[in-house]
Task: inverse folding
């Protein structure tokens, strides 16, 4: 517990608020949970966001349902087949729960 406590104090002191998500005494009561959040939740998410941003800035893009974005600066069209299926499943689940 002392190791986790000192590691958490170091992280709060050395890393920006965006990375740790902690200000003041946040995480001091449960430093293991705070380190878990930092290492396995926040850091991978921020790294993935940074990778996506770099990819888009370098001319790459993302592909969703076979449509690449960005295409000539326009947003991708909605995938109507996926939306119909989602609405069909949602409607069926709602009807099944009511019956």
Result:
């Amino acid at each position: 517990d002392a190791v986790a406590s000192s590691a958490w104090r170091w992280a709060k002191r050395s890393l920006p608020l965006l990375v740790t998500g902690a200000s003041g005494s946040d995480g001091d009561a449960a430093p293991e949970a705070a380190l878990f959040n930092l290492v396995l939740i926040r850091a991978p998410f921020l790294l993935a966001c940074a990778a996506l941003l770099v990819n888009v800035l370098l001319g790459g893009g993302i592909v969703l349902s076979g449509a690449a974005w960005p295409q000539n600066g326009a947003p991708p069209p909605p995938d109507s087949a996926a939306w119909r299926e989602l609405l069909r499943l949602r409607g069926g689940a709602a009807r099944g729960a009511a019956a």
